[in-house]
């Protein structure tokens, strides 16, 4: 038996699995990158922007700058380190602290509290520079209408500043193809109606049961993905001056940083993510055991089970089992996701309701419960079986208990398996 250790909340969990039955441990690829400190990587990126002039050629002394940062669920992107260096650069250019504003791009997520803000930008910047939450139901302004008919409404305070700079990180994303970049505008600082219009593009036109647009998926960030393409238009309408996006390694340290144009710098970051975290497999397994990668990534069901979308491609459809290990300390983490667990007992009714009453929390619930109908899904977390009584999600208190349950479900004592200790980032696919 081999012993494996997964991050879980603030700690770790261990489990055993027969080594001879493990096809492979799916880990990020080893890429030769400059051996620099995080600070050196960030400074190098800012001084060598992609697709646009240097920051001092864009921002002039005395101008105002709004810096848009992610919420606390993206602490892994190391925004505090980036922001410290970015503000230092802006100060040297001649932008005063009082002429800057930080906005937390919470989209429709919960608002950030004092401790969250301090973690996001650092205590020193928290004391020096104004910071506020984006309110998706608050004061917004229209910046344009997308080619798909989405009325683009973004944070009114952000648009009052001379420049908008986006800070974040890039990973695979189950709807937009990749996180970061343009996604910091939509959904980050967009109105609820703009966000919902965008995310509803997941469904094909027609009544419930018409199905999904299959290209709204991990790793697809081009015109085939209408959600991504709509986000690109949102970023252009918002007149983003500059971005600084990180790509982190398996230790949650910045491996590379990309700065410059909101589209071109993001594309470069996404290309690296695909090289590092896209893992090609030759066959699908009976069982995949995947990690939510610990706090803050596994903070809630809403956030912490998204690694499912990175792991699902490695599991045999219908007959296979996917075990996800994710603490979910904030339980569902979204009232609409919780609603979709408790108030519906089948996917058709969920889809009918969702099409007429769209909400991103409801959609996340829908999509996750949908996966549980396509294979056997077992969640190892702090949540209870009764939380999922009306869904196809199964629960187990430990990983070893989940493995025993998988054997019982399938009737197989020996199951071929992939182990995914970095499933929050690493995507397995036969198509790469």
List keywords for this structure.
432 residues, alpha/beta, 2-enoyl-CoA Hydratase, Chain A, domain 1, Rossmann fold, 2 domains, six-stranded parallel sheet, six-stranded mixed sheet, 15 helices, 31% helix
Mean pLDDT: 94
Q: Termini distance?
A: 31 Å
CATH H level, superfamily name of the largest domain: LarA, N-terminal domain
For the secondary structure, the number of strands is: 20
CATH level-3 fold name of the largest domain:
Rossmann fold
Q: What strand order characterises the main sheet? A: 3-19-15-16-17-18
Largest sheet: 6 strands, parallel
Specify Rg, calculated over alpha carbons: 21 Å
Query: Could you say what the CATH architecture of the largest domain is?
Result: 3-Layer(aba) Sandwich
Give the overall shape, derived from the CA principal axes.
globular
Per DSSP, the total helix count is 15
Number of domain modules: 2
Strand content bin:
15-25%
Fold topology:
Layout: E1 2-8, E2 11-17, E3 22-25, H1 38-47, H2 55-58, E4 65-69, H3 79-93, E5 100-104, H4 114-121, H5 123-128, E6 130-133, E7 140-145, E8 151-155, H6 156-159, E9 163-169, E10 172-173, E11 177-178, H7 192-199, H8 226-237, E12 242-248, E13 254-260, H9 264-277, E14 278-280, E15 287-291, H10 301-304, H11 308-311, E16 321-325, H12 335-342, H13 347-356, H14 360-374, E17 376-380, E18 394-396, H15 399-410, E19 417-420, E20 427-429
Parallel strand pairs: 3-19, 4-5, 4-9, 5-6, 9-12, 14-20, 15-16, 15-19, 16-17, 17-18
Antiparallel strand pairs: 1-2, 7-8, 10-11, 12-13
